[in-house]
Structure formats: structure tokens, C-alpha cells
Specification:
The structure is a homodimer of 712-residue chains. Chain A is built from 23 helices and 29 strands. In chain A, helix 12 runs antiparallel to helix 13 and helix 22 packs across helix 23 (659-675). Chains A and B meet through helix 5 and helix 11 of A and helix 5 and helix 11 of B.
Chain lengths: 712, 712
């Protein structure tokens, strides 16, 4: 018997639930899940399925799914591993729409588990069901029309507008607990376990149109399909913020890299690039994730990064100012009108400069009036209110005053109620009334900094991946053909490298491969001076390491001498046989010496690098990474994120450099590596960026190719 | 009437206390302090002083201090500001030893307050009393023989071995509350307010010998005497860890800097340098401060940075591994014997590689046995245990098992009990039993990282400030004399700069100031080629900004041409009148191009810089800062902390560089700026560090001098 395909809505908003494996033992998972479903008043019938019990938690039990009289939308499976496949078949037969398989012992324990998981999945797909798990904690939906707690977690969260997907069940427990403690309301929670069927990507797509969800939180340990994640997240983040914690080192899976780009590409850079390009806010810790979510779920997005601080105690005000500036926020001078009006009612000792310190004598009405003024100030994009309860002033009064002061404002307000025992009643209602509170100013500043970043990302028009048409991919492919035919990856010969770059509109400098001193001198005479002489060898990767690069040769005699020197150096190293010739190259004067590169991430595909080049590339590490394909904004952002970006504007006596040309080189490389998956590693270094309007030329380049394109 | 000088012990361990201004109103500060003293059972009589009340909180009140029949060791003043001076005089007359002035309205509100504070201080000093405050929250001592709660804070902390000094009273409230929530026991707490008499430095010295204190925590907003702080902290931190949060930006007080060093020295670098040199652990937030204190107060110091992670859930184990590596800890491979023994009792699906994942089926005895094995492993310096409570395993059982497993170990153990409601009973006792727990693995990793840093600092032998004797300070002073006589700070002329450097054993390159093309050519011929020609001008600070540096001149003709070019460039800029001459300088080939500098911090004195030099110094920002005077270790650490440090070992084809010579340049500069306080700014850039054994030469240098030494 097959059904029309089920949706995630069927899973998360069922009208009836069966717990297969519901047990009478209180310490069993099946018993705990069943009890949670009852205790949190699921809005529909819940059926315990247990052949050995007459009733479970006072509810009549059924010996099998088939014995249940009505339809079953959702089945929760907590039976032992070896009974799961049969239970899934029973579900299919019963016409169940959604499954949550809590039972563990599948893919995560090795080959036999993987086979069993595949068998289960085959039945699920064949019957048009959707499945969460196996090896998970369960799912939750706080919508009062559903009220589904199909987990064995002890915590039922507050209802709210934040959805959460956790790849770790263990962490899911901690997360639900923390959310409750913070007063962060949850719409839907899913522990996705092994992701055999339903993935995090599926959930993001569900939440995109879920009217109960405004903010999406993810705890990730791995990406099933990074490209799909990027596409979905990029789209969804335009309307609903997505925040993520990603753990798990990818370093061990990485092949030893021979290029600069590969050496610089740390294990986590691809993940950082992916989140950045998809508009996902990454935090290092769950605490930070929740702090940012408290703000994004309850307050408007800030229009800019200018924050006003209002405090009744100097020290915490200074801490807050430090913390704000530390995350890139600014404390603007207040409008003179704001200052003048603050002076009319604050104590003479109060400071009306930002941070506004009302001193300890301030009472609730002062908070209300001052906050209202700060939010009206045209220089202010957000307000952070700090309250330290002195003797005689009640936190709930101040909380109500802050709510009143913030009323009607379209600017975000954050608070920091310090020195109080836990979260007092007034703050709890403050939270539900949508003004978040933080224990210390740093957490508030970090959260606001993230909201500003997200608002900026969202305000920017969507950038496109440019397509250059003045290219000759056929010519590039021909140049690669012979090298890419071998079994082992190889470095392309210099002439082939030049061909590939030329085919993609990447200018090189005039150059010629020569095989003798006279040949070199003649080539140099023909192209003009100064020139450089560079070793040609397929086996020597870093030419400068063997003294294989001789610069600034100004006449034919110097070129001849340099040839002799090159021969001598290799002879001294006993590597004369690797001396295949030399490249005579016209030297150019670069206004900015850049580098552009690509290394292949085994999971995420081509990872592009751009930054400050030269021989000290790996020492300065002034580079940025993004995943292929690059939009115009991606490439421009890479350049703007460099420490050396100021060199493009002309630094001291040096000329400015053609920033647009460097960005174009990066974009052309992006298109190149996308078109030609045989390329597995690429270094353009240096890229001589000339003065504005003069373009950029690739001075040296290395390309490594493999026979079989290993792009994922 | 005068007394023998009181000590901090008299203040913090009094045998009798009077509250001057004890009020019957429950919302008054005096009432709150008096109530706290009674409620927390101070071990001695507490006298309310209130002329208008017969009794306060059922205790007979006295109309004045004089009316109290017995002696009064400590008086807490909560009277209105205008009554404080009279009350202090009464205290002096009564023979009170210590004062805590909670009343505000002194130095912090401006000039009239400052004058009043000075008058109060005069009385205090004249009577040999010690005073904490004014404008503070009060003091606490949890020693059961004292049991002093002379604060108006609602929280009485747990007794313990951590001392805390807070410059902010407001934050003090939050701190006491947080400490209580974390189960962090406090020995003494002092809110030091305006620090009119007793300073943070005094408290650190008191805690140095206080048998009840093992760890010292500081919340600082300013330094009264940074040099004394450094001396005291450096000594005390050898035996008791000192942790600090410092807020407050010093940027506004900073004079506009004209040197590279000044431009690079951000507002907070001097504070960072000070803490580093004093062995003080700086944290950004109060949360981090307490996390580190939980570990340092309760566990032995780690002997190294190798951590074993033991977990019953995979995800949090990965998070912990990431977090540990992120703070510089390493996860070593376990000894094969450990691995073999773990396999004998863990589930077959468990992972016995580090992190050791015992999977969810692990029970308390598994934790005990596995932890014991990990702590015995010779590859392991510390253990982090993560516990996620699955259904059926009790946290208190596991907590007891961890205590048992850690028994007798000299290696630190940290835990992370996740997903539990608050801190369960078992963990509470775990904390008192001295194994700290953290809510998430990142916090545990950060705390352990700090403990490793501190242990390393403490294990290192104390380093001395070297004194070079091959110097001629008189010669340097003569060279400075004329310049330092003027009213305005000036840049020294190049010849005077060379004199000063030569007098301090800092080698320069052969050079001569010339005033014409032929003169230049002759000078170059005499010193040998290649040479550089550099503009001499007292008004043009950055010579390369006007094209005033021409390099690599290889014969006399090129020198003549260069002279003409220099003339032309300045003429083109209309600055010919600033062309005072040129410096002909022999060019050297540096293996490392360094920079050494000094800028004067208005509060902390000379701040020394060393790092990668050249024209891109401010772009690369690869520099380190330390405060004067430098020990040998300080200078060596500066070099070791650079990104470019690998260049000293020879990078790719480049030669290695004379690291010892560069360190010596740094140390000589430190002695120079200490001996000659007229020097207010100094840049040596570039410093050509030659190949090992060849030394280092200063290629270019600028020194700015002022008439009046403004060193603090």
C-alpha cells in the first residue's frame, strides 16, 4: 500500500500520534516520550503500541499499529534496533505519514548499521513517508493547535518564534533547557540524528514558509549537501535570519596541499566562507547563538551600527562601551537637542554624553523618558539600557519603564539587568514583552554586533555571479588535455599555464621559454628591459627555494650571466637534470602585488583565495577565502577584508592600484575553475596590479591538474 | 588622639563594628548594611549609631560613636555626604582602626567632591586609620572567625579561597550574585570605590600573605600607580594566580602620535602589555574571569597543554575538541596501554581514541574507571569530562564517580554536565569537592587554556632587566642637549640621532650628510656601493612620502643623477626650502627587516614596540608591545610572538637572520629610553638584521625629544 508523498508539515503538525515501544518503565525512552506527549497535551489522540501491556500511563495500549482503530499521522519508534525495520513496515502498512526513529545503532555504529538504515530508508521512501532520525531525541512543536512533545527531554520549552534543528541529540537536551532558562520561545525543535531522510536543509525550507517561525537556529556537525545548503540558506536568510553553530574539524580529511593557497586554507575556512556567502550568522558557542537569537526574535533590525548606552552605574557603562566598540559598533555623539532635553530632568552629576550615566539616583521614570529621547535621536540606531538595582529601586518598575520608553520605536532596544538574583519577574515579562536582557554588557554588545552584520547583509542587493564571454574555454581545455590525461595529478608546463590564462582573459607579462644563454639574451632584447629569468622545471615546485628566480636584468650581458648562474646553482644542488630551461619575462612595476589561488576542498569544492602576494604570502597571511562560485560582491568583499586594502588607495608615496582589475582577476579565476574541473590547485602569485586604469597582469602562475575531476 | 598605624587586617578582620548612619528604614543603605551584619552573624558586637532612633533592627542604638561603651575596630559610614567629614573626625576621636565610607558624592562628582575627599583623607591619615571608599559597596570576609558582611548587597557568598576586589560597586553586586550561583567560594570581597586610601595594590599585598586566599580576582577601571601594580603583581603571581578584567578606554587621553610606533599603539595595548609582563591573566568578561577562577581555585596547575576528553556523547565531544584546539591545547594520542585497558570494559561501539566517546550506554562506573586511566596516561596533562544525562543515568552518580576517578591525581580535571536543569545537587557537591563544572565545553576549554598559560609563566625562571655597560650616556645626552632645550618637542637632526644610537652601542650603516651632487658622489665613492640617497629635512617627517629616498645607486653618476632628482621632486612639490641636504648611506642586505620603536603612554610610561619593519610596517601590523623596562624574556617573547618570526630561521631560499642581535637592539633601546627621559618618541625602521653572527644595523631612525621629561 502506498500513499501520496508526505510533507514535513505532516511530520511536524500531526493530528494523531502512536508511540511504538511505549513502555511502562519510567526510565525507558518509550515511556518518557509517551509521558511527554500526554503531559504537554498533544491536540489529538496518542496511542501507545506495546504488545505486552494492557495500558501505559493509564492509557489503553494497542498490541500493534494495525490494531489502532483510527488513522495515525505520526509514529514515534523507540523499539530495539532489531525491531525497527519491521515496525517501519507496519507503519507503511498502516498508512502512517511521518516517522521519528529515536532508536540508535544505525549508520553511526558502522557498516551493519548503515545497511539496516538503508533498508529502513527504502521502505520509508517506497511508502511516501518522511522520517526524522534514526538516532535522535525527537521533535517538538509548541503551536497550541498542535502542542507536540515527541521527545524524551525533560524540558518543554516556552512557545515562541524561534525554530531549532540540532544534529546532536545530547546537545538538544542542553539547548531546550537553556532556551527555557533564557525565556527564549521555541516554535519547532527537531533533533535530526543521522539525517537518513529529513535533513537540516529540508527543515530550513519548511521554516521558510512556516508562519510560526521568524528565526532559524542550527547546530551542525556536518553538511550533507553544502551546495544545496548554500542555495537554500541564501534565499531563506533574505527574510528570516539563520544562525548556526558548526562543530567538527574537517582537517583530517584534507589532502596534503602543495600550493600556497592549499597551505593557507585552514580546516575551518571553507565553513566560514560558506556561512558568510549564504548570509548565515555563525557563532562559536551555543550561548552566543541564543544571545543573538533573543535579539533577532524580539527586536527590529538596526538600520546602522550607532548605539546609545543608557546606564545608572558608571563602571558597567564603560564596560558596555568597550564591548560595543570591540565588535565594531560606534557610540555616536548625541544630537544637541537630546543632550539639552536630558539635562532638564537628570541629576546635575549625570553625564549626558554617550554613554548616558544617570547615576544611582535615577528612578524608573528617568529610564522611560531618557530611553524615549535616545530612540528619537537621529544619530542613534539602537539602544542598550543597563540597570544596576540600587537599594530602593525595583527592577520590575524599571523593566516596565523601559518597555514604555521603547514603545513605538523601530529601533532595537537591549537591556542588561545586572546584579539581580536570576531573572526577576519584571524581566521575565520584559522578555515576553520583547526586550531581551543579558547578564553582562559584553553579551549584549556581541548580539547587537551580529544583528548589525545581518541587517547589512540583508540590505545589500543580491549580487550575481558574473559570466565573462570574452573567453575561449576550448583553447584552455586543449592546453590542459595532455596533462590531465595521466593517472597522477601534475603541474602544468609554463606554456600551457600561459595558454589557459590567456584563454580566460588573464593577462600575463611578455615572456618566452628559452634553452640557452644566447637564446635568453635574444628574447630579452626583443621584449625590452628590465627582465627576469626564471627556472623552468616540472619537478621543482617553489622556484625561489632553489634560487631559480633572478630579477632586474637590464641588458643582454646580465641575462647571459644570469643563465650561467642558474646552471651553477642547480649543479651545486645536484639537480642539473631538473633544469629544463628558463623563462625570460618582462618585469612590470606593480602598485599592489597580489595573489589569487584555488584549492579543492574535499567537501565544499573549489575554495578561492585572494590577498597580498609575493614571497612572504604565507608569512603575512593577509588573504581572504570564499567558496566557488563568486558573486561580484564576494570578490569585492575579499579585497575589502584585507589588511593591505589601503594600498589600493595609494599608501604614502606609493601609487594607488587598480582595485577593479584585481577584483576582475579573482572573478575570472572563479569562472576558470568552474569551467575546468580538471584544475585541482592554482596559484597566481604575484599578480601585478598596476595603477588605476592600467589593469593587472599575472607574473607567475602554477596550475595543477588531475585526470578525473574530483569536484563534488 | 592618634593611634599606631592600622593595617588592612584591622579593616578586614575587625572584632567590633559600628554602622554610622544605621537607619530603621528598610530601603536605606545604612539599614541594609546593619541588617546584613546581623543576619550573617558577625563574630563580635555591631553597634548602630543613629541619634534619632532608640533601636535599629531590635538592637539598641547609640546617639554617637563616643557613646559606645567598648572599642570600635571598624566603622561603616552611610551618613549623607555633608556629614561624612564630621563622622570621620568622630571615628578618629573614638580610636577606630578602619573605615568603610559607602557614601558617594566625592571625587567622582567633580572639584568640590575632590576637595572634601582630600579633607577626609587628611583626617584618616593623621589618625593612622585605613579607609576603603568613599563611594563603594562595602567589604565582606567569609572567614567563620570573622563573618563580616559590611555591604548592602543582598547576596552573602559561599565561603571559599578566592579574593575579589572591584572598582565598581554596581558590578560588585552582580559579581557576588554570579559567584554564589556558580558555587565559587569567596574569602574576602572589597568594593574599593574611589580608592582615596586603600587601593587595589594594597589589597593584593594583603592577600599575598592571607592564609584564606589562593586566587585573586580584580575588576579594574583605572590604575592609580601602574608601576607599583606591576611590581606587586609580578611578585604575588609567582605564588597566587591573579586574574583581572580591565575596562575603560584610555584612547581619549592619548596625544596624537607622529611616529609609526605611536600610530600602531592602540589604546589598550599598554594595558595588555602590563598584565602580560606582570603575569596577570586578563579576561574580557566577568564570566570568563569566574570560569578561570573555578579551575585555578580548585584544581592543580596543568604541567602541559595535552588534554584528554572523556564523553558519553559524540557531538559535545567534537565541540570540546574544537574548543580546546582553538585555545592552543592539544589532544594527544593516548598511550597504547590506556587504549588497550579502555577496550576491556567500554562498549564495542565506543571510541577509545581521544576524545574517548563511551557512548550513551556508559554508566557511572565507566566514568570512574576511564577517568582514572586517562589521568594515569603519561601523554595527558589534564582531563575534561563531558556528561550528557541520558534517560536512566543519574547525574549525582556520575559526579561521585568522577570525584572517585580523580582521587589522588595531580592533574587538573574539569567537567561539563550538559542538559541538566541548573546545577543538580550532585554537581553542587562536585564543586565543593573541587571539580569545576561548565555549562558548555567552550568555557571549560578557555579556562584550561588560561591555566596552562599561567602555569607556563610561573614555571619559567624570573628574567632580569639586563644592564649594558658598554655605553656612553654622556655622549648621548650631549647630542640631545640642544634639541631638548626648546619649549616644543622636536625631531632630532640625523647626525644627533646617529650620535645617540652610537652611544648606546646601536650600530648604524656608514653614512654622511652632504649638501651637493659632487659632495654626494665623493662620499659614496669613499664608503663603497651600493648606496642610498635620503633627504635631510627637519620638517618632513616621512621622507618616502615625498619621494625623498632613492635606493640602489651603484656608481658616482647614479648618485649625481639621484641628487638632481631629489631637487626636482621637492621643487615640484613647492617644498624646495625644506631640502636641507641629503644623507648618503651604504646599503646593507638584511636577512630580516625589522623595526623597533617607543611611544610614551601618558599613564604607563614608555611603551616599546618591535616587529617587522619597512615601509609597510603599519599595513602589516606585525608588531609586539611591552612596557619599559624590558627583561631578556620580554624582548625574546616580543620576537617570538611575531607572525614573521619564521623568517629568522631562514624562510624558503632566504638566509636565516641574527635573532639574538635583534633582541639585543630591543633591549638596548629599552635601556636608552629609560636613561634619557627627554626622548618621547623613537622609531628605528628599518633595522637590518643580518645573517646569524653578523649582528643588526639601524638603517634609519627618528627620535623626538621634549624639554621636560613627561615620564610618570
Amino acid at each position: 500500500m502506498t500513499n501520496p508523498p508526505a510533507t514535513l508539515g505532516d511530520l511536524l503538525c500531526p493530528r494523531s500520534v502512536a508511540v511504538v515501544g511505549a513502555s511502562r518503565r519510567p526510565d525507558s525512552i518509550g515511556g518518557a516520550v509517551f509521558k511527554n506527549l500526554l503531559a504537554n497535551e498533544f491536540q489529538g489522540p496518542v496511542y501507545p503500541v506495546n504488545p505486552k501491556a494492557e495500558f501505559v500511563h493509564s492509557v489503553r495500549a494497542f498490541p500493534s499499529l494495525a490494531a489502532i482503530p483510527g488513522p495515525v499521522d505520526l509514529a514515534i519508534l523507540t523499539v530495539p534496533r532489531d525491531s525497527v525495520l519491521a515496525a517501519v513496515k507496519d507503519c507503511a502498512a498502516k498508512g502512517v505519514r511521518g516517522l521519528v526513529v529515536i532508536t540508535a545503532g544505525f549508520r553511526e555504529v558502522g557498516e551493519s548499521g548503515r545497511r539496516l538504515e538503508d533498508q529502513v530508508l527504502e521502505v520509508v521512501r517506497g511508502a511516501g513517508m518522511r522520517m526524522i532520525g534514526p538516532n535522535c531525541l525527537g521533535i517538538l512543536n509548541t503551536d497550541p493547535a498542535v502542542s507536540l512533545d515527541a521527545t524524551f527531554a525533560p524540558t518543554w520549552p516556552l512557545a515562541g518564534r524561534v525554530a531549532f534543528s540540532s544534529q546532536s541529540g545530547a546537545l538538544g537536551l542542553a539547548i531546550l533547557d537553556l532556551a527555557r532558562g533564557l525565556g527564549l520561545g521555541i516554535s519547532t525543535f527537531a533533533s535530526i540524528g543521522n539525517k537518513a531522510d529529513v535533513s537540516g536543509n529540508d527543515l530550513i525550507e519548511y521554516w521558510e514558509t512556516d508562519p510560526n517561525t521568524d528565526v532559524i537556529l542550527l547546530y551542525l556537525e556536518s553538511f550533507g549537501n553544502p551546495r544545496r545548503f548554500t542555495q537554500i540558506a541564501r534565499r531563506v536568510a533574505r527574510t528570516k535570519p539563520i544562525l548556526a553553530v558548526k562543530s567538527g574539524r574537517t582537517g583530517s580529511g584534507r589532502r596534503a596541499a602543495q600550493s600556497h593557497t592549499g597551505a593557507l586554507a585552514g580546516a575551518d575556512l571553507a565553513v566560514d566562507a560558506l556561512f558568510r556567502q549564504a548570509g548565515v550568522l555563525r557563532t562559536d558557542t551555543i550561548d552566543d547563538l541564543f544571545d543573538a537569537a533573543l535579539l533577532l526574535a524580539h527586536q527590529p533590525l538596526p538600520a546602522g551600527n550607532r548605539v546609545a548606552i543608557l546606564t545608572n552605574a558608571g563602571g558597567p557603562g564603560i564596560m558596555a562601551a568597550d564591548a560595543c566598540e570591540g565588535v565594531g559598533l560606534v557610540l555616536p555623539a548625541l544630537d544637541p537637542a537630546t543632550d539639552a532635553e536630558l539635562r532638564t530632568f537628570l541629576a546635575p552629576e549625570a553625564s549626558t554624553r554617550n554613554p548616558v550615566d544617570m547615576i544611582a539616583s535615577a528612578r524608573a521614570p528617568h529610564f522611560e523618558r531618557a530611553l524615549g529621547l535616545l530612540l528619537k535621536d537621529p544619530n542613534v540606531d539602537a539602544a542598550l539600557v543597563i540597570f544596576v538595582p540600587p537599594v530602593g529601586t525595583e527592577a520590575p518598575d524599571v523593566a516596565r519603564a523601559i518597555l514604555a520608553g521603547a514603545l513605538g520605536s523601530t529601533k532595537p532596544v537591549l537591556t542588561c539587568f545586572m546584579g539581580s538574583h536570576g531573572i526577576p519577574e519584571g524581566l521575565r515579562s520584559l522578555r515576553q514583552g520583547h526586550v531581551p536582557s543579558y547578564g553582562f554588557p559584553e553579551a549584549a554588545a556581541r548580539a547587537l554586533g551580529r544583528a548589525v552584520s545581518y541587517a547589512r547583509w540583508r540590505a545589500r542587493p543580491e549580487s550575481a555571479v558574473p559570466v565573462f564571454v570574452d573567453l575561449d574555454p576550448g583553447r584552455a581545455r586543449r592546453a590542459l588535455a595532455s596533462a590531465a590525461a595521466g593517472a597522477e595529478p601534475v603541474w602544468l608546463a609554463p606554456l600551457a599555464v600561459s595558454e589557459v590564462l590567456a584563454a580566460y582573459g588573464l593577462r600575463g607579462v611578455p615572456e618566452r621559454v628559452v634553452h640557452g644563454a644566447e637564446d635568453a639574451a635574444a628574447a630579452a632584447d626583443a621584449m625590452g628591459y628590465p627582465v627576469a629569468l626564471k627556472l623552468v622545471s616540472t619537478t621543482i615546485t617553489h622556484k625561489s627555494d632553489v634560487g631559480g628566480v633572478i630579477l632586474r636584468l637590464t641588458d643582454a650581458d646580465e641575462v647571459r650571466q644570469a643563465w650561467a648562474e642558474l646552471e651553477g646553482r642547480l649543479a651545486a644542488l645536484g639537480r642539473s637534470r631538473e633544469f629544463e630551461g628558463a623563462l625570460v619575462q618582462r618585469m612590470v612595476v606593480s602598485a599592489y602585488e597580489g595573489a589569487v589561488g584555488m584549492t579543492l576542498d574535499p567537501q565544499f569544492g573549489p575554495l578561492l583565495m585572494a590577498g597580498l602576494g609575493g614571497t612572504l604570502l604565507e608569512v603575512h597571511k593577509d588573504v581572504a577565502f570564499r567558496l566557488h562560485p563568486l558573486t561580484r560582491d564576494d570578490a569585492a568583499e575579499m579585497v575589502d577584508s584585507l589588511r593591505s586594502r589601503r594600498l589600493f588607495d595609494g599608501y604614502r608615496a606609493a601609487s594607488p592600484a587598480d582595485r577593479a582589475a584585481f577584483v576582475e582577476v579573482i572573478l575570472r579565476v572563479s569562472q576558470l575553475v568552474g569551467d575546468l574541473p580538471e584544475i585541482i590547485e592554482l596559484d597566481l602569485n604575484p599578480v601585478a596590479v598596476l595603477e588605476p586604469g592600467e589593469g593587472a597582469v599575472v607574473v607567475d602562475a602554477r596550475i595543477r591538474v588531475a585526470a578525473v575531476p574530483p569536484h563534488p
